[in-house]
Every structure is written in structure tokens, then in C-alpha cells.
Amino acid sequence: MMNMTLHDLAVLLNSLNVTASNAKASANADDSAPEPAKGDALAAHPYKVGDAVFIRTVTYHYIGKIVGVYANEITLIDATWVADSGRWSAALKTGTLSEVEPFPDGDVVVISRGTIVDVSPWRHALPRSVK
After folding, report:
1. What pLDDT digit, counting tens, does each position of 79-92 carry?
2. CATH code 2.30.30.100 for 46-121
3. What pTM was computed for the model?
């Protein structure tokens, strides 16, 4: 087994991250992916402002329309906390959810990007009533 210092490991991980980022950027050169803000390397992301999404975090699930993406947060408007999605595939396909609690109309909800497990497109009307 190879002996590495923490510094060596950090350099290796940084190198791998940069290589992966460059490969991804090259592969997506013709895509309409958002460009990172100048001077903010963390601004690169797959999210598009205006898209309706279903976000699963490590503890909670949300549906809403993206209004902002920041280095550490993503913000939604007309968001709903999903207490129980029911069958996952059915929820995404039909928009049918078992239990939801909407935030007040127009409120902006801030979600930590570090807690996000996955984000799926929401192709249905945003749920706006308690169920």
C-alpha cells in the first residue's frame, strides 16, 4: 500500500476533480448548460432557473420552481414540502402525491445544496393545497 500524506491526498483529489470537470465541460460543450459566474467556480450546476423540480434531500422532499442557485443553496418559489410521495415512479409519471404541505404562495424556500440527494424534473402543476 502506498504511503500518502494528507497534502498528497488533497493534491490528488483536486487533480481528479479538475480532470473530471474538464472532461464534463468538453463533453457538454454543445449543450445549453448554464455557465459559471466569473470568479465563482462553484456556480457551475445542472439546474435551470424557472424549471419545476422535485428535490429529495437527506431528510425532506420538496417540489417547487427554481428561482436561484447559489454556491451552497438553491431557492424555490411556490414550494411544497412532500411528506409522502407515495410510489416514487407514479409520483413522477402522474403527479399524484400521497401527502403534501405547501409553503405560503410566493414565499421563497432556501434549501442547502449539500443536503440534496437527487433532483428530478416535475412535469405537473405545482401542488398548492394540503393533501
Report:
1. 999 999 999 999 99
2. yes
3. 0.67
